[in-house]
Design a protein that fits this description.
Largest sheet: 9 strands, mixed
CATH topology: Peroxisomal Thiolase, Chain A, domain 1
Order of helices and strands: EHEHEHEHHHEEEHEHHEHHHHEE
Number of domains: 1
Low-confidence stretches: none
CATH superfamily: Thiolase/Chalcone synthase
Mean pLDDT: 93
Helix content: 25-40%
Distance between the termini: 28 Å
Oligomer: single chain
Number of helices: 13
Shape: globular
Number of strands: 11
Radius of gyration: 19 Å
Structural class: alpha/beta
Strand content: 15-25%
Length: 376
């Protein structure tokens, strides 16, 4: 019987690339995707004709993307726009390579949400949140965090620590969109969007694109950069109406716990081995929920865990060192996986985690995924 542990360290990331992030009304999603692809190809020095697998997300039509890139893969998979697709796509690519369906996969994500003024919620997503009285995912996360406050005494000042630490990292990233430092007081004085969440608790919406290139660990030795190994991963779906409305009242705890446990066991590491965490931060409370679900702290103790810069470089657990969704750009998890690779390569300059050997990615969503990367 096949065991996912057999895939430990068998697949590697050999190339990563991204565009600038911002407002680019003059270019479409295909153009941004092509830029990110070119960057990733140059990063690893691969001949693009060696790429025989293509995974695209938030790109209208995979065949058109392949035509523009000038590649003819034998394995393709198009994924929807939802943020949960980043972890899913990477794991699917690992499975395809392992099964021999292809040898080398390019995963491309592009977003033109800012220049086209895309709204997440309201009239653009009718029916998703409306039955519960919400008009956007922010409202659902606000209610979840309010419950956490009532149950465990978590405060908005503790929540502010998440945004402040992640912004601190963005200030060290020359490519991040938001590079002005913020304080806890700045967070507390920012306007409410949906109480108790304020402006600085919400992710950014920007144009941009990301690409990762994966192949087998054996083939990875032939390329320009030292490979980063995919050592473990885990998955758990939560198929319920409230989960898909993004207000899981158990803070995603069962799903995060299950996915994290699978990833740790497959990789053969524990919490103490993790040097940095890349955590899907569409809203700042998601980071608190993820810390508890993964077991970095006990249930209800994430507020105290993040105090005094616990998530900053030099703190307990450096988190989202590129600035994350809150301050770098909302690339729906894809850029966080790129940052994991760059940290393990030691390419992050002022935001580099010293002696970084293990980085974990987690997305706490209706389709929870966690991936553990290690230095090859």
């Amino acid at each position: 019987m096949f065991d996912t542990k057999d895939l430990k360290n068998k697949i590697a990331v050999i190339g990563v690339g991204n565009t600038k992030y911002g407002n680019f009304p003059h270019i479409d999603d295909y153009g941004l995707g092509a830029q990110a692809f070119r960057s990733a190809v140059q990063d690893c020095g691969i001949d693009k004709n060696q790429i025989d697998g293509l995974c695209v997300s938030r790109i209208p039509y995979y065949a058109r993307m392949g035509e523009i890139l000038g590649i003819n893969p034998k394995w393709t998979i198009p994924l929807p726009a939802h943020g949960r697709m980043s972890g899913m796509g990477i794991i699917e690519a690992c499975a395809a390579i392992s099964a021999g369906l292809c040898q080398t996969v390019a995963l491309i994500y592009a977003n033109i949400g800012r220049s086209r003024r895309v709204n997440y919620g309201g009239d653009e997503s009718p029916g998703t949140w409306d039955p519960w009285g919400f008009t956007s995912p922010g409202g659902a996360h606000a209610m979840a965090f309010r419950r956490h406050m009532e149950m465990y005494g978590t405060t908005t000042r503790q929540l502010a620590e998440v945004s402040v630490s992640i912004r601190y990292h963005a200030c060290l990233n020359p490519d991040a969109v938001m590079r002005n430092p913020i304080t806890i007081e700045d967070h507390e004085s920012a306007r409410f969007i949906t109480a108790p969440l304020r402006l600085l608790d919400y992710c950014l919406i920007n144009d941009g694109a990301v690409c990762l290139i994966l192949t087998s660990a054996e083939r990875a030795k032939d390329f320009a950069k030292k490979p980063v190994l995919i050592s473990g991963f885990g998955a758990q779906e939560t198929f319920s109406p409230s989960a898909f409305a993004n207000f899981d009242m158990d803070f995603w705890y069962p799903a995060i716990s299950a996915a994290g446990k699978q990833a740790y066991e497959m990789a053969g590491v524990s919490h103490g081995d993790v040097d940095a965490l890349m955590c899907y931060d569409n809203f700042s409370p998601t980071v608190l929920f993820s810390l508890e679900g993964l077991g970095f702290c006990k249930r209800g103790e994430s507020g105290s865990f993040v105090e005094n810069g616990g998530l900053s470089l030099g703190g307990r657990l450096p988190t989202n060192t590129d600035g994350g969704h809150l301050s770098n750009s909302y690339m729906q998890g894809w850029a966080l996986n790129v940052e994991a690779v760059r940290q393990l390569r030691g390419e992050c300059g002022d935001r580099q985690v010293p002696d970084c050997e293990v980085v974990q990615y987690v997305q706490s969503t209706p389709c929870t995924r966690s991936i553990i990367y290690t230095r090859g």
